[in-house]
Design goal:
There is one protein chain. With 167 residues, the protein is α/β, with parallel strands linked by helices. It has a single domain, classed as 3-Layer(aba) Sandwich (Collagenase (Catalytic Domain)), CATH 3.40.390.30. It is built from five helices and five strands. Strands 1, 2, 3, 4 and 5 form a five-stranded mixed β-sheet that branches. The protein is globular.
Amino acid sequence: MTENKIRVIITNNQKAVKIPTGLRMLIRRCCNAVLQMENFDGSAEISVTFVDNEEIRKLNAQYRNKDTATDVLSFPMGENGVYDLNMETGAKILGDVVLSMEKAIEQANAYGHSLQREVAYLTAHSVLHLLGYDHIESMERVRMREKEELIMTELGLPASSSYIVTE
């Protein structure tokens, strides 16, 4: 088997939340786990950016016409399994994940679990989006949720409580 390299570029563009030690490594492990689970073939590149609620609100308004802060945004670079390549490395550029650290803390507190679990969950969710998953239709949403929970269990961060999905 050829060595597939997964490069996760993590940028912190916010000052609202101190990034806990080990969080970057957890995000990398999470990206690896998703790509492994999905039998992703080849080297890949994913960009993850930490922002605050104000920044994610601007992006959400600009790209989705929703003038409200959200937890995570995914900007896939590929379509139908076809990706742009990084000409230097030959890696497939999967896209960008933009994560509100403020929202992640709010949600971790609301769900009663750690910031680590929340960030890992949002990362798994977003990377599935980069791979073409969606949750508009209810069966897709269920499949996506199952995959996310599988990843969380694999990372040693199983759900501590059941989730209530609200529309």
